[in-house]
Each structure stands twice: as structure tokens, then as C-alpha cells.
Amino acid sequence: MKHAIPLSSLLLLSIGLTSMVHAESFESSTDGWKSDSPATSRIVSVAEGAPAAAITEGEFCLELSADNGKAWTQLAVQANLAKQIRQSDTLSFDLFVPASSLPKEGWAKVQVRLFGGKGDQVSFDLTEDIALTLNEDKSYKVEWNYAAHPDFDPNCYWAHIAIVKLGSGGTLSPLYIDNIQFGNGPEVSSTDSFLLDDSWELIFEDNFDGEHGAAPPEHWRLGAQWKADGTWRDSTPSMEEAYLDGKGNLVMRTQYKDGKRLASYLVTSEAGTYAKEDSITFGPGENGIFIEWRVNLSQYKAFASWFALWLFSDTPYENDPAKGSEIDVMEYVPFESDAYSLMNKFNAAIHIANGGPSAIGPPTPYGHTEFDSTRWNTWGLHWTKEQQVFYLNGKPYWINTKNVSTTDDHGLRMTIEIANGDPEKGNKNHWGHAVGKFEDNPEAYLPSYAYIDYVRVYKKRPTTEAK
Fold it and tell me: What domains can you pick out in the chain, each with its CATH number?
């Protein structure tokens, strides 16, 4: 689920528009918007009851109402914009929700739905969620890069947009929409293209060369050292579970041994555990950085565990990106059931608070992006003060402009964590998967191994310093 974050009185979602190809401000009609029963719609001015803050373009806006208290109600559909949807990348509009329309407690959100296809076949059905703040009149600026979604079909013959309300109670009605725009977002290059530019300087590199069984370089330290007994979640982190294979790779292992769930958990920084002068941290700097990992997860299968490549600030979870964040470049959570499989998907996310509505992720179903888990893959992060572009095998799959931290206190992390399923919750872990106990994995899944070929960090030089 994706959420909005405050910026003054306006909330910004996704990426900014660079060129507008269609605009709609409801100055004369609803222009193809049709209400879904039991919802109603009308164009209104301030004189006709619209809040002044709801009108951001011209003198009118679209009012959507539904008096029923159902948690899910599709308010209206616009079915006449297939051409604009095909030719554009992004959809934006201004949303105003009065406090009186919201439940007094619980939760509420507005969902933008985009679906389309060919003939009578639906080829994609995408959604973007806007989490709403309760008990407060608030304006939201919604900007959605729908074309970045891997399921979007730009060759669709028809496409519809719908506005949906969801909430834990109440009617969530009315709400107001104005200044709808379609546009084209910024283009991003493959890593092969921009890393060939001599304006990039390699500032950190590990190739993990060394004898078989040797420890990783000493700047990789044991993380998650917050508890007196040395455990974290349902595992015992151990440096013995990370070693060189003698072939230029770092091996990170997890296993069940002598009654302990052992895992490797490597960090270059951890506030409260290691001194700042003994740590290595990174941030976007003035001109941006690029971080890349080459990893093989073909031998990593253990349920109730997960492998992650991420960065963690020394001042995390302040609910303010200017004070640092958690940047999950990839989290691999292997699990397979009769209904679905995660053995070929990974998750990415940004957090500025410990859970809750600060979490945002890429525009993929449930935040999971498909990859080939049988081969070597490279994950990359191009990070500037304005945005973060996430790469898989040299190609961007997520452009993020929300909760972008600008601090330079983020340590690198390569970790394995274990969280058993809760018997009282159907043996599900906190990811919601019925994983059972780590030690009950099939024999072929334990130990599980992740292999890292290299970690590299590049800094963008100022233009005047480019060689």
C-alpha cells in the first residue's frame, strides 16, 4: 500500500509532470465522468457549496458523493480517455477531503483505479492508494506514474479511470476533485548508459576476493546487536555465517544448528553499537550516488527467513525524511503455497517511521517485482536529493520521489532475518505468509545460501570536476 506524506499543506505522490498533454478542470461539464450507483456527481462552485480549498483551477470542481457506509464504493468512472492514457505516463489531480466526510477513527483512503484492454478482454487493472488523514480538512496532490507499472499495456484499445473510496467506517462523502492532468514523466537511462560517463567516481568497492573460509572485509560488522542475548527476531546473528568462497564471492548463510537459528547480518554502520569513526555511511551528497550489488539467490529457499539489500540511517524513524530513513532496495522473502509463489519476486520500500503509513513501495502488486531467482542479478539505486531510481539488471523499475532522505548517515546492510509464523495467526509471519517454523523447512532448504559478487558505490562528480 502506498501513502501520501505532508509537504506544507499539500501532499505529493509519485513523480512530477514534465509535460501536460490533457487537462480537465470541470469548468463546463463532467466531460465523460459517470457516477457509479449508489454514488452521485456534479460540478460545483464555492457558491454552490464547494469548499474554497477544493477549487484549484478555474471556478468549479467535481463533487463525488455516496451515502452508503460500505467500505468499498466506486464513485465514478471516466471512460473516454484511452488515447491520453496510451500517450502519457502520468496522471495527476487535486483532491480535497473535508474532515466531516471521514470516519472519526480507524482509516480511510481514496483509490485511483486504471483498467483497460482489447475487445472484451481486460489486460491490466492497476490501483494507486492515497491514505487520508482523519479529523482534518486536507488537500492532496495526487501524481501517479502508472506507465511504470509492469502490468500496464500501452497498446490497449480502451482504458477507464475510476475513483474509489475505502474506509473503516462512515460514508467518506463528499470528496472533491479538480485539475486532472495527463503528462509524461522524466526519462531515466539504463545503468550501462550513465555509468560509462566519466563524471562518476568509484568511492567504495568490495569484490570479496580472498581464501575460502576467510571473513568478509572488516568494515562489514555484525548488526542487530540491540538485545543482551544477541538475538534479533527469531534468529541469532553470527559472523561465522558470512565467509568468502575463494572464488570472488561472499557467502551469506542461514541454518538451524545446535538449537539455534543462525543468520548472517552485515552492516557498515549501526548507531549505538559502533562508533561513527568506525563506520561507513552514505547519502546523496550534492550530485547523487549510485549503489550496485550483484547477487545470486538460487540457493536461498528457506521459508520464515528473508534476505535483504538495504540502507539504514543512524537517525532513523523520525517520521521525517530529512532526518534519515530505511531504504529497502530489495527484500527476498521466499515462500510458496498452493495459491501463490514468492520464489521469483522481491520487495522494495522506503520507511521513515517504524511501520505505519510512512511505508511506500514500487507500483507492483503487493510491492513485489518479478525476477529470475535462478541466475545472478544486479540491484541498483541511483539516489539524489530529489529522487531515487531503483534498478534491476541495469533497467529502472521504480522512480521514487516520496520520503527521499538527504542525509549522509545511511550505512549499507546485507542481511538475513528470521521470523517464525505465529500459531495463533495461522502460522503466518509478519509478512502475512503461512511460513511455519524456520527449523521445519525441507531438508533441501537448510542451510540456505546467498552469494554476493560485488558491492560498488559511485559518486557523481560536479560538472567542473569531470575528467
Answer: 6-184 (2.60.120.260), 191-465 (2.60.120.200)
